Amino acid sequence: MLELFIHVRFLDVIDIFLVAIIFYEIYKLVKGTVAFNIFMGIFIIFVVWLVVKSLKMELLGSILGQLFGVGVIAIIIVFQQEVRRFLLMLGSRYRANRRFSLENLFSSQFKFASEASLHAIVDACIQMSENRTGALIVLARESELQEYVETGEIIDAAITPELIKSIFFKNSPLHDGAMVITLNRIKAARCILPLSQKLEINPILGLRHRAAIGLSEQTDAYVIVVSEETGHISASYSGELVENVPMEELFRILESGYK
């Protein structure tokens, strides 16, 4: 006798909900990139495999099953940046949700230092914007970005508007590349950042903006860009770029990353 109703348990609902969340997070990571097409191809093959298994097509099902078994390593290699961003996102949320830690015990001291540093950075950006001096400034958060610091010239100096402006002065040997700020100090300048592979980035934007997006895709850093052509200030974080940020909004955006 055929069953007329499908029995759905509460755990089945939770299972579907969790899978939907995972697929949604993966979609947010790969949308707008070349990896999105690869992801869609893998997803289509996976759906075909499920259909083949349900139809009990043993030969084709075993071939596709072996393909997925061996392809796990290949998928990790292809989606290396996306996997890194996903794990970084999980780790950042865990640290953000902790209530008791050594950082929290001394949070007022760190916040005061960070606030003073942010004011110096914002002042420098405003002056460089007025003079149309191009700049690319990286503000490290949970990660100290040591792998990117090592690509540039080590400075390890206190943060002052005058030093930031002098580094990005067009005749300075350190003006080309990114400045990395970590632990409330200017750690290095002329650093090399990864470029974003997103396809929908405005073609008018230059390599500074694409590098800012690229680093914010792979890390939790906040990146400031001052356009040499227009003087506009942009901010990039979590793989997104906010263009033409008003002066009064720049400090608020940066401060939100250190709460």
Output the keywords:
14% strand, 10 helices, elongated, YojJ-like (1
What does this structure look like?
The protein has helices at residues 10-30, 34-54, 58-78, 80-97, 102-105, 107-131, 146-149, 161-168, 207-218, 247-256, and strands at 135-139, 153-158, 178-182, 185-191, 222-226, 233-237, 240-242. It has 259 residues and is an alpha+beta fold. It folds into 2 domains: 10-78, no CATH class; 103-256, DNA integrity scanning protein, DisA, N-terminal domain (YojJ-like (1, 3-Layer(aba) Sandwich). It is elongated.
Assembly status: single chain
Runs in which pLDDT lies below 50 for 5 or more consecutive residues are 96-113
For the biggest sheet, the summary is: 7 strands, mixed
Radius of gyration: 23 Å
- By DSSP (H or I, 4+ residues per run), the number of helices equals 10
Give the strand content: 5-15%
The CATH architecture of the largest domain is 3-Layer(aba) Sandwich
Order of helices and strands: HHHHHHEHEHEEHEEEH
Query: What fraction, in percent, of the residue positions are helical?
Result: 55-70%
User: How many domains make up the coordinates?
Assistant: 2
CATH superfamily of the largest domain, please? DNA integrity scanning protein, DisA, N-terminal domain
Total beta strands: 7
Strand order of the largest sheet: 2-4-3-1-5-6-7
Q: Judging from the principal axes of the Cα atoms, what is the shape?
A: elongated
CATH topology of the largest domain: YojJ-like (1
Distance between the termini: 62 Å
CATH C-level class of the largest domain: Alpha Beta
The overall pLDDT average reads: 80
